[in-house]
Amino acid sequence: MTQPRPAGQHTVRRHNSALVLGAIATAPGISRAGVAARTGLTKATVSSLVDRLIGAGLVHDAGPEQRPGPGRRGTSLSLSPAGPHGLGVEIGVDYLATCLVDLTGAVRHERIRPVDNRFRPVADVCTDVAAALDEELREAAGAQVTVGGIGVAVPGLVEASTGLLRRAPNLDWHDVDIPAELRGRVSLPDAAILVGNEANFAALAELWTGGHDDLHDFVHVSGEIGIGAGIVIGAELFSGVRGFGGELGHFPVDSDGPHCPCGARGCLERLAGQDAILERAGAADLDALLDRLATGDGAATGAARHAAARLGIALSSVVNLLDVPAVVLGGTYARLYPWLAEPLRAELGARVLSASWSPVGVVCSTLGTEAAVRGAAASAVRAIVADPDAFMDGR
Amino acid sequence: MTQPRPAGQHTVRRHNSALVLGAIATAPGISRAGVAARTGLTKATVSSLVDRLIGAGLVHDAGPEQRPGPGRRGTSLSLSPAGPHGLGVEIGVDYLATCLVDLTGAVRHERIRPVDNRFRPVADVCTDVAAALDEELREAAGAQVTVGGIGVAVPGLVEASTGLLRRAPNLDWHDVDIPAELRGRVSLPDAAILVGNEANFAALAELWTGGHDDLHDFVHVSGEIGIGAGIVIGAELFSGVRGFGGELGHFPVDSDGPHCPCGARGCLERLAGQDAILERAGAADLDALLDRLATGDGAATGAARHAAARLGIALSSVVNLLDVPAVVLGGTYARLYPWLAEPLRAELGARVLSASWSPVGVVCSTLGTEAAVRGAAASAVRAIVADPDAFMDGR
DNA sequence: CGAGATAGTTTGACGCCTGAACTTATCGAC
DNA sequence: GTCGATAAGTTCAGGCGTCAAACTATCTCG
């Protein structure tokens, strides 16, 4: 819990700077007058704040705007493409991905490297990560832009207060201080390094760059090797008290179901995970499954329906508890969306108490497996946009 | 989602007023200098703010404090017992409770009236509520205090944005505008009326007046006729996006379990609700059950263990999802606590992923069935303490 | 080319916090 | 008993950031 701090004029300026920058971010090309109208601040204040933001290299003045009708043209403002960039890394179970995005979230460079990280020592993996980071840093240097922050997505439980990776079952890591490991291996600028769970970052990427209108509250379910959920409420990530939230994979959905390494029976992961679907369908891999689904194969569609029903049982509990109006299917589930959506909607409609007057939306993720890296990179720049004064004071 | 507003000097004052009043509320008897040290504001600012708060009747100056050592004595500040009071009403299924509390949350008057409200028309019940409110208002008038706000606890789903009671299954009500119904029936001051779910109010009461130290994050489970959960995170209520959150009663805990009116099978409410426990134990009512538990009766203790295990299944999902470090047993469960706690702890320990390094606390509620009314009344005064400027400007 | 409309800047005022000096109050030592 | 040390509370000038209003700049239309 962040303890409340006294407010002063600087607090006001900080708040309003973020307000102005947020307005420019959500409506690129807006004029100072437009920002004033949108935020409720006066033109004078907006001018003063915008000048500061331009001075810090966060906002770009693109000259007079095109607009019909009488009156002087405003100057078109937008987030500066030359401003600080965000660098994202995802330490996946079987790949390593990096990504460089500008302030608007646009991807400038991206690379995915297949590596089997299962049970590799922390030091080895971090050396790889450092090399991958160096590559992106050179990319940034070549484009004459600075890196304002780094986001690291990991498949495990990250403690919010310390940034420690507490458990990563599929990597067999525990209690790893990733920022510390990296700082020793790569010539980083004094940028902030923030570590987070991949499912959470993926949910944020979907929120920011998924292209869904007015989707500020949802649960993003990513079916990868495990099943993780990212909860977004009020356009903000909700990751629980200590950051360990969103663990959906071990929701019990069948008291007679198969045993799970976690000790319980009938965990969602065992019944609706990627491996479970493939096995039930008798398909070798995801591509084979998709082929057979496309031809209307009975076993394949049956497996999808079965998984969707189990997913619906778990998600209906989530919706009843959190009252989120929509579910986003990501990761593997995004590719299976056409076959999952209907049975999932049916299950949710039957089990969610508020569904009778307010049905739960089921939406397909637009970002694929890259969602997590994108989210990690975007988080770094979002942190700057959300609090530009902190960034400006820091340098 | 509340859209961000521009900040000005008034925002600063508002924030700091709340900060100062909060410091006085959490440390009664503190001096101006103490508040300054605790909040980080200067003595000058604190003096100015405190004077305003005293002027508004929110803070009481109790003369010089007792303290050893040299130096001038500070003046002892505390929330004014003569300040605005909070009035709470709970429309229960089989009772109607009212409660009047002062700014500190201390109960000044309380009354519970047994009434069977099942399936009574809205108008009839609201007439009773109005009469009960009038009684408390006369009480307040007799004590020369004003009522600063009214909280209404109801057993149903309340929409946060509108304050409408959407569904109350056990009353058979839907879409009731309780503030509107009341304003026509009782001579209210222009006080704010806030309607909320009883489980949520109960959780807040536990947070504020439960006497638990450093318990700012928990799920409060109240086992009454239904099973409701109030989620408190960061010392604030989390009631979901639209306010319908916390519905725990229909979590599926046994895929072979009995059918539930909701349409599903094996809902928690059917397996761990008060009626289910009594039936399994073969007890006529709760007192009979407690008697038999006290004697170590096998059927009774077995029924308790059985319910606790089912409750554990549902709560472990909640904890995995929200990462709350503690569970508070309230309502009927509070009375059964000695027999529920151990099996519940065992179930949570086995099913919660983070339990291995951070066990989930299981705590007994200290407030009984009065928690909800208390919470409703306290909410009204908390709203004033949390934002005193809004209260001061309003009058 | 001038009236009207819209964008952006300048200027003075106001509110609120801050820091330092000042007043008030109490204790302990001589 | 008086003096000095210590702490609480008040007063006052100063700074900062927003606001309102006046002013300048630019564009369209008649």
Keywords:
5-stranded mixed β-sheet; homodimer; 15 strands; Arc Repressor Mutant, subunit A; DNA-binding; 395 residues; alpha/beta; Nucleotidyltransferase, domain 5; globular
Q: Would you give an account of this structure?
A:
2 copies of one chain form a homodimer. The first copy, chain A, is of the alpha/beta class and 395 residues long. Chain A has 3 domains: 9-79, Orthogonal Bundle (Arc Repressor Mutant, subunit A); 85-202 and 371-394, ATPase, nucleotide binding domain (Nucleotidyltransferase, domain 5); 212-364, ATPase, nucleotide binding domain (Nucleotidyltransferase, domain 5). The first copy, chain A, has helices at 9-26, 32-39, 43-55, 122-142, 178-183, 198-209, 268-272, 274-281, 286-294, 298-322, 332-335, 337-351, 371-386, 388-394; strands spanning 59-64, 75-79, 85-91, 95-101, 107-114, 147-154, 157-158, 165-168, 173-176, 192-197, 218-223, 227-233, 236-238, 326-331, 361-364. A 5-stranded mixed sheet of chain A has the order 5-4-3-6-10, sandwiched between helices. In chain A, strands 13-12-11-14-15 form a 5-stranded mixed sheet, with helices on both faces. In chain A, helix 2 packs across helix 3 (43-55) and helix 6 packs across helix 13 (371-386). Chain A is globular and about 70 Å long. The model of chain A has no long low-confidence stretch (mean pLDDT 92). The interface between A and B is large, with 64 and 64 residues. The structure holds a DNA duplex (30 and 30 nucleotides).
